[in-house]
Design goal:
The protein is of the alpha/beta class. It is 30% helix and 16% strand. The strands form two sheets. The chain has a seven-stranded mixed sheet.
Length: 313
């Protein structure tokens, strides 16, 4: 449940066809994130989708934490023991209260170890995990928190305030209920995918039942730093479609463009390399045969690092 000392880059399949597919869809830089099965998960990775394999890795990303039901229902769900019967699935957390407990104890254990004391009790995290979480509290390693419901979003603020931790909010489906909280805090938001009918793990989650198609509009109007994400969606449902949906439901086209270029570059700390067309930056360009993000337009050419990496025949 607490594995921030793991790095997702060690599990990346560098031969995956997803790299070529993403590049053809105009995505030249990606953030590879852990899944949501751990309360405090592994560190993500920043990568390029094209170029030489040995030059695609940009650097390690944030530790991903999850406040919500995914941490106990992902895959084979955790469950409490039944009378005297115990199996491998009898694990904590098994509720939202348990998720908050594991998160809080992990950071508390890190504080104890930093002060020269050894933590004890159930759900004690490893010394390796505590070392990373100490760096998170010191601001040396960034933290992302997936929190979809309004209650989980509020819990993330409460817990991070307790430990003095800054974070980026990820996948806040019900963010429209907490616009004032987000706007006043200045916490960056990674929003998406925008959907009418949920797919994947969201299709079986109650956390997606109160989504709204115009949430990106409301967040942008409040001045909240916002980047769009398609998560694992590809092709017709990929990042370009997410920008199209944002425009359709109230986001200005120029702002939607920034949500998939400049804003994510700033969130990832690589705005000096990508995100805008400026001298000295990497020459990543996407050329359309019409208005970008229009359902009537296609991507014709993708230039990655100054080299034509995709060209539609």
């Amino acid at each position: 449940e607490v594995v921030p000392h793991f790095e997702i880059f060690d599990a990346v399949d560098h031969g995956s066809e997803d790299f070529d597919r993403l590049l053809s869809e105009g995505v030249t830089t990606i953030y590879v994130s852990p899944d949501s099965s751990a309360v405090v998960g592994a560190r993500g990775a920043l990568m390029r989708t094209g170029g030489a394999l040995n030059k695609r890795f940009i650097g390690p990303g944030a530790v991903k934490a999850v406040l919500g039901s995914d941490a106990y229902r992902f895959g084979s769900s955790n469950r409490p023991p039944f009378r005297t019967f115990v199996s491998v699935y009898n694990r904590r957390p098994a509720s939202r209260m348990g998720v908050a407990w594991v998160f809080r104890k992990a950071f508390h254990d890190a504080l104890l170890r930093a002060g020269g004391h050894e933590p004890s009790g159930a759900d004690t995290s490893s010394p390796e995990a505590s070392r990373v979480l100490t760096q998170v509290m010191q601001g040396e390693i960034p933290l992302r928190i997936q929190a979809r419901t309004a209650a989980d979003i509020e819990t993330s603020f409460r817990l991070c305030k307790e430990f003095g931790v800054s974070f980026t909010l990820e996948d806040p489906t019900e963010a429209y209920k907490t616009v004032d909280l987000l706007a006043n805090s200045g916490v960056p938001v990674i929003y998406g995918p925008i959907f009418d009918v949920p797919s994947g793990i969201l299709s079986g989650s109650r956390e997606s039942r109160q989504s709204r198609l115009n949430t990106a509009r409301d967040l942008a109007a409040s001045g909240i730093p916002l980047a769009l994400s398609a998560q694992d969606l590809r092709g017709e449902e990929g990042l370009a479609r997410q920008a199209m949906l944002a425009i359709r439901y109230g986001v200005a086209p120029s702002e939607a463009m920034r949500m998939v270029t400049l804003h994510p570059a700033r969130l990832l700390g690589i705005a000096d390399e990508v995100g805008t067309l400026e001298q000295g930056k990497r020459a990543d360009l996407v050329i359309w045969n019409g208005t970008p993000f229009s359902s009537l337009s296609q991507i014709k050419v993708v230039i990655h690092g100054g080299v034509i990496s995709f060209e539609r025949s």
